[in-house]
Design brief:
There is one protein chain. Helices cover 35% and strands 16% of the residues. It is built from twelve helices and 13 strands. It has a seven-stranded parallel beta sheet with strand order 6-7-8-9-10-11-12. Helix 1 packs across helix 3 and helix 8 runs parallel beside helix 9. The two termini are 31 Å apart. The structure holds 2-succinylbenzoate and magnesium ion.
Length: 357
């Protein structure tokens, strides 16, 4: 699916999003899921290719024809597959959609989410110059986004942030490095403490909890972990180690909505705020993110933007729009609360496979 504009991060540039859309057929209903893995292994090791392989050869055969009543039962069955959390999460999302549709309840209701609308922001990729970045930021502010996230990488950090902070002294601003620094190279980032940022997201490598602890000791600004947190256990370790003060949750990254909720609960008990991250999802994944972000400990603005920020044509009939208070409504219909635009889905489909008993 072509993005409205290319999205560039420290790990690469994406102009088109490639993803796997899951349909599970059961008892006359269809549940939809989206796999957040992209074509390239930039953000994480999983790709559409690895997810396709794991789904086809392991996860789908493990669940076909089985009577599965809960996400926990599903996770028990697929626990024989190590890792591949994005592949696992995509099937879990489709199961949740089915559970909700069968009970005629929204995912928000099933999760006991408290919000009907979610505070959101926009994540802005690296631009060609700080001037170009300032223009993009001002356009999103005009559209009504109340929180801006800038992507940074070595050489494109302090300069970009100081121009944006200088031009917009009052806005809620945060940065995301996607693991582009080491403890050594991150020393230049310490000057970010002067820019009143909400947080700095994932400065160091994903398996470096202890290094993040050392860096957090040097920073006044809160460190937020994204890539490092793959489970509630990781969240607990990171919190006990004081490796971060905020945790971003993406259901795809952690193996599914059930683990995402477990991380939320772990953080809530320990007074660590959460926010819902994004992976440039289609309307299917965005609906899932909104349901998750309705939970009470998601107290910081989500990376869930309006459909038009990502796609001219989405694969859902519903388009998500930004409210004037920088929120997006949580879908209220059964399951994910979205319907598929079959024609659009067909237009974008590269390959399709059907499995059944
Ligand atoms: O690190 O948060 C990230 C997009 C793709 C991969 C990783 C990230 C992102 C974003 C975009 O920041 C968030 C969105 O979907 O709006
Ligand atoms: Mg991130």
């Amino acid at each position: 699916m072509p993005l409205v504009s290319p999205f560039e991060t420290s790990f690469g540039r994406i102009s088109e999003r490639e993803c796997i859309v899951i349909s599970i057929f059961s008892e006359g209903l269809v549940g939809y899921g989206e796999c957040v893995a992209d074509r390239d292994p930039g953000y994480a090791y999983e790709t559409t290719g690895t997810a396709w392989h794991i789904l086809r050869d392991f996860l789908i055969p493990a669940i076909l024809g089985k009577d599965i009543k809960s996400a926990d039962e599903y996770q028990e069955i697929v626990s024989e597959v190590r890792g591949h959390l994005m592949a696992k999460a995509s099937l879990e999302m489709a199961l949740w959609d089915l559970f909700g549709k069968a009970q005629e309840k929204s995912l928000r209701t099933l999760f006991q989410g408290e919000r009907q609308k979610v505070d959101v922001g926009v994540s802005i990729g690296l631009q060609n110059s700080p001037q170009a970045l300032a223009k993009v930021v001002s356009e999103y502010l005009e559209q009504g986004y109340g929180r801006i996230k800038l992507k940074i990488k070595p050489g494109r950090d302090l300069g970009d942030v100081s121009i944006i902070r200088g031009s917009f002294p009052e806005i809620r601003l945060q940065v995301d490095a996607n693991s582009a620094y080491t403890l050594d190279t991150a020393q230049t980032l310490l000057q970010l403490d002067n820019f009143n940022l909400l947080m700095i997201e994932q400065p160091l490598f994903e398996d470096d909890l202890w290094e993040h602890h050392k860096l957090q000791l040097q920073f006044h600004t809160a460190i937020c972990l994204d890539e490092s947190i793959l489970s509630a256990r990781h969240a607990r370790s990171a919190i006990e180690m004081e490796a971060c003060r905020i945790i971003n949750i993406k259901a795809g990254r952690v193996g599914g909505l059930s683990e995402a909720i477990a991380i939320h609960d772990t953080c809530k008990e320990r007074g660590i705020p959460n926010w819902c991250g994004g992976m440039l999802e289609t309307g299917v994944g965005r609906a899932s993110n909104l349901a998750l972000a309705s939970l009470p400990n998601f107290t910081l603005p989500a990376d869930i933007s309006a459909t038009e920020r990502y796609y001219k044509q989405d694969i859902t009939n519903e388009n998500f729009v930004l409210n004037s208070d920088s929120t997006i409504n949580v879908p209220a219909g059964g399951g994910l609360g979205v319907t598929i635009n079959e024609k659009a889905l067909k237009t974008f489909t590269l390959t399709e496979a059907i499995y059944g008993k």
